[in-house]
Amino acid sequence: MPNSELMPIGVFAQRSGLTSSALRFYADSGLLNPTEVDPVSGYRYYSADQVARATMLRQLREIAMPLAVVEAVLEARADEASRLLDEHVAKVVGDAVAAQQKAAVIKSVLGDVSSLPIVVLKGPVLANAVEQVLTATAREPGMPVLAGLCIEASHEAVTLTATDRYRLSTRTLVPAEPPRQTWVGTVDGDELRAAIAEIRRSALVRLEAVVHGIWLRMEDREDRYCRLLSEEFPDYRLMLASLSEVTTRVTVSKELLLRALEDHPGDRIALHVTDHGMNVRSADDEHPDIPLPATATGQSLQTWFELTTLYPAVSTAIGPDVMLDLRGHDQPVTIRSADRGDLTTLAMPIKSDHRSV
Length: 357
Description:
Elements: E1 7-8, H1 9-16, H2 20-28, E2 36-37, E3 44-46, H3 51-62, H4 67-75, H5 78-109, E4 116-122, H6 123-134, E5 148-153, E6 158-163, E7 167-173, E8 183-188, H7 189-200, E9 204-209, E10 213-218, E11 224-227, H8 236-241, E12 248-253, H9 254-263, E13 268-274, E14 277-281, E15 290-292, E16 294-298, E17 301-306, H10 307-315, E18 321-326, E19 333-337, E20 343-347
Antiparallel strand pairs: 1-3, 2-3, 4-9, 5-6, 5-8, 6-7, 7-20, 9-10, 10-11, 12-16, 12-18, 13-14, 13-17, 14-15, 18-19, 19-20
Helix pairs in contact: 4-5, 6-7, 9-10
């Protein structure tokens, strides 16, 4: 008879999250053999130290890992198992993207689906703009639009905009050919991000709209399809129009400001602006201010930011110098190139920390 420390298959199934039938299958596959099998009844018994392996087995199968790879992961050391997991996930993602593109091609020939030409843009310019603006996206449950990129085509220009509620980035592009008509849509950011490498390698990219997405038509490369999000993009123009007047303007080296943010020890920082320049300030007195040479006009001001909000807003700015327009300690700061205004980012401040001005 099995010893009292062993679990019958039903109890082990509850502990591991696997069904009894799955346990029998994995035993037959050699992945998880029972510790003991009653020779008379054929009942299978498992030990407590098999729960971890069974749980890992279940988790690996939940991400659709083939049995052969599952076995390799279970027997491998931690570093090798991590590599195998990364390879599997990369394959799943690649297969999903390929399936998505093939499905889009199939949909395009179902019935008589017509496309609407929107605009022609230079591929490298579009790729850079998409990368810059997509830094202001976020994945939030219930708000998929925050992971999207709004594309607006007018008769003169194309504007790309994204927001995660703490930042808003917008960039205006001059098209290679005048837009044929006005158009607005919010494109899935992840799908655009996946197409960036191909966009960058195409001299010209033609954007065409269909009912549920856009096509990126590229010469000598496979066309890419990106879904449109159904949710309405936030009315950012209303927010921009409601901003109060700028009270303080600072021009500073982008490289020096980024270096100061990187050297800063905390996750919250203050920009302390006076007529002598700007300091990057910590919340406590243990870490000295980092002074930066800067040209400042207007009122002296101290504004606090989360590093995760301010750093990407500065790092994506175009050119060697950035201009910061501040409106008060509790108002958004506008960050843009000191000599090129086609990429603009708004960064939301946070409540001030204890350290005073």
